[in-house]
Amino acid sequence: MISANHALDTLARKLGLPALAFTEDQVGIDVMPELTIFLSRLDDTTLEASCLIEHLGHPDAAMMQAMLEANHLGGAVGAGRLALDGDTGDVILCESWNLSELDPAALETRFDIFANTAAFWLTAGTEGLLERGNTLRAARSEDAGLAPDPSLDEGQQPVFMRL
C-alpha cells in the first residue's frame, strides 16, 4: 500500500521530474504538449487521474449517448471512463486508483496505461466519437415519429451526478 504523497514521489521519479506536490489536492503533469494529466487526491489512498478531451467541447445529447456507448464497450477507455467535468461541463477521461491495492510498480503501469489511453482520445478516439455523435444526430433528425432531441443551449448547464 502506498499513500497519495508516496504515489506522487513514485511518479516524479519515473518521469524524471522534480518533486511533485498537491496544490489544493490536485497536481498537473505535462506528459506531452497537448496532454496534461491531473491527479486529484480524493483521500489518502485514492487518486483520480483525469485529462481534458478538448476537441469534444460541451457535448449535446447525441454526443453524450456516444460517450456512454464508449464507456459501456470499455475497450477504448480502458479502466477509465469518459465524463463531464462537474465545474466546466467539458469532456474528460478519468480513472480512480485505489492506492491500497497498488505497489509502486503497479502505479507506474497504471499511469502509463492511462497516458496511452488519453493520447488515443486526443486523436483517433475523438474522431471516432465525433463520427458516432454525428450518426446519432442524423438518425434522430430523420426519424419523423420523434421530435428532434433538444440540446443544451449555450450557457445552460447539464445536471451532474457523481457516484
Automatic annotation (TrEMBL):
<dbReference type="Pfam" id="PF05932">
    <property type="entry name" value="CesT"/>
</dbReference>
<dbReference type="GO" id="GO:0030254">
    <property type="term" value="P:protein secretion by the type III secretion system"/>
</dbReference>
<dbReference type="InterPro" id="IPR010261">
    <property type="entry name" value="Tir_chaperone"/>
</dbReference>
<feature type="region of interest" description="Disordered">
    <location>
        <begin position="141"/>
        <end position="163"/>
    </location>
</feature>
<protein>
    <submittedName>
        <fullName>Type III secretion system chaperone</fullName>
    </submittedName>
</protein>
